[in-house]
Write a structure and sequence with these properties.
This protein has 277 residues and is of the alpha/beta class. It folds into 3 domains: 4-87, Arc Repressor Mutant, subunit A (Orthogonal Bundle), CATH 1.10.10; 88-157 and 257-276, Periplasmic binding protein-like II (D-Maltodextrin-Binding Protein, domain 2, 3-Layer(aba) Sandwich), CATH 3.40.190; 159-256, Periplasmic binding protein-like II (D-Maltodextrin-Binding Protein, domain 2, 3-Layer(aba) Sandwich). 42% of the residues lie in helices and 24% in strands. It is built from 10 helices and 11 strands. Strands 3, 4, 5, 6, 9, 10 and 11 form a 7-stranded mixed sheet that branches. It has a two-stranded antiparallel ribbon with strand order 1-2. Strands 7-8 form a two-stranded parallel ribbon. A hairpin with a 4-residue loop joins β1 (49-51) and β2 (56-58).
C-alpha cells in the first residue's frame, strides 16, 4: 500500500539534496527516513536512487516520481478540501467575492433578516471566482460585472459608493463632494485586501498611504488619528457610532461599483434566497 507520507519524504529529499537535511526538516531520524525510502522503492517496484559510498541521488525515474508526487499531494489536498466543503453544505454556504464590502453588505442583510445562515467568504479576482463557481466550489459569487456564461444566473445586486472620511476639523469637511484628483498630496490611512478597489488605489500615485492589515487595529487608528481614510456606504453602517468624522462622496465614475450576484441554475433556490435578503 502506497503511503502519502513516504511521497512527502521523497519530495523533502529532492528539495534538501541529502537524507540528513531532509530528516532534519521532517523531524525524523535519518535511519527512519532511509528505511522509508527503501520501502517506497519496494512499493513502487522501481529504483528511485543511485547509491554510492558517500552519495545518494535520484535516478531519472526518481526525478519523474518526485514530479508526480507533487501533483498527487496537491490533488489530495484539493480532495480533502472538497470533502470538507460538501460535509458543511447542510449548514454553510460558500461564496466567492471580489471586494471586502460584499461580505459586510451580506452580513448586514443577514442580521436585518434575523437569519442564522452561515456563509464562508473567499476574496479573489473575478476570473478565479467564475472558475470556482463552475467547479461548484461556491454556491454563489458576487463580482463587479455580470457573469455571462451558459447555465449561470446573474443579476445586479447592490452598489458601493466610495467616500473620503475626514475629521470634522479637516479642510475638506465642509465640501459636499470631492474628486479623486483632490486626494493628491494627502497622506491617508488604508486597509489592505481591497479586492477590485485596489486598481483605483494604485492609480493614486500622488497620494501617500499608510496600510494596515488588521481590521481592528485599523478601526482604532481611524478613531485616534486625524488622517483621512476611505469609507463606503457599506462600511459606514459598520462604524456608524463614529460621529467624529465626516464622509464626503467621491464624484468620479470609478468611485462607484455595481455588484452582481451569480449562481449556477441548479442552485436557483440559493440564488433567490440571496436576492431576497
Amino acid at each position: 500500500m502506497l503511503h502519502l507520507q513516504h511521497l512527502e519524504q521523497l519530495i523533502a529529499f529532492a528539495d534538501q539534496g541529502t537524507l540528513s537535511k531532509a530528516a532534519e526538516v521532517l523531524l525524523i531520524s535519518q535511519p527512519s527516513l532511509t528505511r522509508n525510502m527503501q520501502q517506497l522503492e519496494e512499493e513502487l517496484g522501481v529504483v528511485l536512487f543511485e547509491r554510492s559510498k558517500n552519495k545518494l541521488q535520484l535516478t531519472e525515474t526518481g526525478e519523474y516520481t518526485v514530479g508526480l508526487a507533487r501533483q498527487l499531494l496537491a490533488d489530495s489536498d484539493t480532495f480533502l478540501e472538497r470533502v470538507h466543503r460538501f460535509s458543511l453544505q447542510a449548514t454553510t454556504l460558500f461564496a466567492g467575492i471580489s471586494a471586502p464590502g460584499v461580505e459586510w453588505e451580506i452580513q448586514n442583510r443577514l442580521a436585518e433578516a434575523e437569519s442564522e445562515q452561515i456563509i464562508h467568504f473567499d476574496l479573489k479576482e473575478k476570473e478565479r471566482l467564475v472558475q470556482g463557481l463552475l467547479a461548484e466550489d461556491y454556491q454563489f459569487i458576487v463580482t463587479d460585472s455580470p457573469v455571462q456564461e451558459p447555465n449561470i444566473l446573474s443579476s445586479s445586486y447592490f452598489r458601493e459608493q466610495l467616500y473620503l472620511s475626514v475629521p470634522e476639523s479637516h479642510p475638506f469637511a465642509s465640501k459636499e463632494s470631492i474628486q479623486l484628483a483632490d486626494l493628491a498630496s494627502l497622506t491617508m490611512l488604508l486597509r489592505s485586501d481591497l479586492g477590485i478597489w485596489q486598481d483605483l488605489i494604485d492609480s493614486l500615485t500622488e497620494t501617500k498611504f499608510i496600510v494596515q492589515k488588521d481590521w481592528e487595529a485599523f478601526t482604532e487608528l481611524i478613531s485616534a488619528s486625524t488622517l483621512p481614510s476611505f469609507s463606503t456606504n457599506i462600511t459606514q453602517m459598520i462604524s456608524e457610532g463614529n460621529g467624529q468624522r465626516v464622509d464626503i462622496p467621491i464624484d468620479d465614475p470609478e468611485a462607484t461599483k455595481t455588484f452582481y450576484l451569480s449562481a449556477l441554475e441548479k442552485n436557483e433556490r440559493i440564488y433567490k434566497q440571496m436576492q431576497s435578503l
